[in-house]
């Protein structure tokens, strides 16, 4: 049995299977199981092997695990354009299926439906808490955080205001939510998904925003990379004008600034200052380039 990142490869059985730890409660574990039972209908999903009791998870070493098929292939690489295109097509397939699945019984999926407005309001409150802690600490990193608080605080208020004003069509689907390259397996230019711990029910743009932000971060929010990924979405998973507006609103909320401040001031993650600074430079340091991307999106809407 081979183990990596809390995932166990069971080589003793044929075909090989994977035992993956679930970092969610029983309710969400049951919803993950309900989704993965549909793998024959939605091929981007892995096949699940339920326990003898009929539950989608197994108890192993005191934690819940799901047993799924071993997905042959490699991790995605978003520097490879074919992998990006495969991810977009997998997203479209998941969303189209997710809409139909939720429509059958919306109440079942309501526990994982995200309320974006309340989420952003809570995160803005946490940013204000971080600002208060930073003022008291008076360290170099705190001063760096405070210098950009007004800019990112303004963006947070703007995003919340714009979300309240948005009058587009409400659409619920299953969002994968975490489009990190290591959460997709690529084989023959097709992507499959396997880590559903963070799945939520929300508008499809939620996932589009997640993937776009990750992609642009790789290219330091350059305008070329922005046009490249927007064109590929337009080609493989087309936009409506109201979706572009919602994308602009979602990208506006300063997620990176919020999460890094939370990890440093509230969670007090025991990471080195070198690591924190690397994260700052990678995620926050390009804030001026982000503004150029926002300006471009405004022109496209």
TrEMBL record:
Keywords: Capsid protein, Virion. It comes from the Bacteria. Residues 33-212 form the Aminoglycoside phosphotransferase domain. It holds the Pfam family APH. GO terms for cellular component: endospore-forming forespore. The keyword Nucleotidyltransferase does not apply. This is CotS family spore coat protein.
């Amino acid at each position: 049995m081979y183990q990596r990142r809390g995932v166990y490869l069971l080589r003793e059985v044929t075909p090989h299977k994977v035992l993956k730890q679930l970092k969610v409660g029983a309710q969400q574990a049951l919803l993950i199981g309900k989704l993965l039972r549909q793998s024959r209908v939605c091929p981007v999903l892995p096949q699940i092997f339920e326990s003898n009791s009929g539950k989608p998870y197994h108890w192993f070493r005191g934690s819940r695990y799901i047993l799924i098929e071993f997905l042959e292939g490699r991790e995605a690489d978003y520097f490879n354009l074919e992998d990006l295109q495969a991810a977009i097509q997998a997203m479209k397939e998941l969303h189209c299926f997710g809409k139909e699945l939720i429509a059958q019984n919306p109440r079942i999926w309501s526990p994982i439906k995200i309320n974006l407005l309340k989420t952003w309001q809570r995160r803005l409150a946490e940013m204000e808490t971080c600002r208060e802690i930073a003022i008291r600490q008076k360290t170099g990193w705190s001063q760096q955080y405070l210098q950009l608080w007004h800019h990112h605080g303004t963006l947070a208020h703007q995003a919340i205001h714009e979300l309240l004003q948005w009058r587009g069509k409400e659409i619920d689907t299953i969002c994968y939510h975490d489009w990190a390259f290591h959460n997709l397996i690529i084989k023959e230019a097709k992507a499959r998904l396997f880590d559903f711990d963070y799945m939520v029910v929300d508008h499809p743009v939620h996932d589009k925003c997640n993937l776009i932000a990750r992609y642009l971060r790789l290219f330091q929010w350059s305008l070329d990379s922005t046009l490249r990924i927007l064109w590929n979405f337009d080609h493989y998973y087309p936009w409506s004008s109201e979706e572009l507006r919602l994308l602009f609103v979602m990208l506006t909320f300063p997620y990176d600034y919020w999460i890094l401040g939370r990890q440093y001031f509230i969670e007090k993650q025991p990471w080195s200052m070198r690591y924190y600074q690397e994260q700052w430079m990678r995620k926050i340091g390009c804030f001026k380039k982000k503004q150029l991307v926002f300006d471009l999106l405004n022109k496209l809407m």
